Amino acid sequence: MFKVGVIGCGNMGEAIIKGLIEKAGINSTSIVVNDINKERQNYIVEKYNVAGSDIRKVVNLSEIVFLVVKPKDLQDSLESIKDLFKENQILISVLAGVKIEKIKSIVEKPLVVRIMPNTPALIGEGVIGVSFEKDTEKKQEIIDLLKGLGEVFEVKEELLDVITGLSGSGPAYVFTFIDALAQGGVKMGLPYQDALKIATQTVLGAAKLLKETGEHPAVLRDTVSSPAGTTIYGLHELEKKNFKDAVISAVETATKRSKEL
């Protein structure tokens, strides 16, 4: 028997495998994986020293199964294995927009858990929204596993769309902001690579300061904003361009799109 099975070894599937081994303390020999692309499966097996097998054996031999396929492949993936699940198994779905109710209509026996991780999970610094089909004594065990990918936030299932709009899409907003900071540096004379490093470290340092102090963002912002100084002039320009409104609208629009999907 294996502790964990992973069906789908793309970027997020690999992030899960890496996080389980490096952060959650799961022995690589306790993980079995499957991918429709056998070259990809073999690559993951060799890189992480995990076992590889066909999809039915992954389900039959694992306590916890991560389903990390594309939403459009849900039906085909589960139809081939639905008869193998047992009452004491856990199925963790990483399929965006696919509700627990839909999964349970195909597989009845396992406890179904939905998660919504974002791309920084690839380096163990992600945000993972999680919703459980029902309360379970295994909840803490599952949350501890997911901490290998980053910080875990349990929410009602209907709020996973908000997690998608905020943290799922959020890295793209941050990357755009970092690039804009760097481009501003270039406009004022810095080489792009230097400006990009400075902008990246600025955002990283500011985020760490916010996290470690626990202060409200406005408090830390005001500590930088000297009367008639450079920062308040810059902030005024952001306000004139409706910077905050644009970010709020981005999260709102992405959340609505997630619900549509």
Automatic annotation (TrEMBL):
One of its GO terms (biological process) is L-proline biosynthetic process. InterPro entries: 6-PGluconate_DH-like_C_sf, NAD(P)-bd_dom_sf, P5C_Rdtase_cat_N, P5CR-like_CS, P5CR_dimer, Pyrroline-COOH_reductase. Residues 3-97 form the Pyrroline-5-carboxylate reductase catalytic N-terminal domain. The keyword Cytoplasm applies. The keyword Transcription regulation does not apply. One of its GO terms (molecular function) is pyrroline-5-carboxylate reductase activity. NADP(+) binds at I7, G8, C9, G10, N11, M12. SUPFAM superfamilies: 6-phosphogluconate dehydrogenase C-terminal domain-like, NAD(P)-binding Rossmann-fold domains. It catalyses: L-proline + NADP(+) = (S)-1-pyrroline-5-carboxylate + NADPH + 2 H(+); L-proline + NAD(+) = (S)-1-pyrroline-5-carboxylate + NADH + 2 H(+). It is found in: Cytoplasm. Belongs to the pyrroline-5-carboxylate reductase family. This is Pyrroline-5-carboxylate reductase. It comes from Sulfurihydrogenibium azorense (strain DSM 15241 / OCM 825 / Az-Fu1).
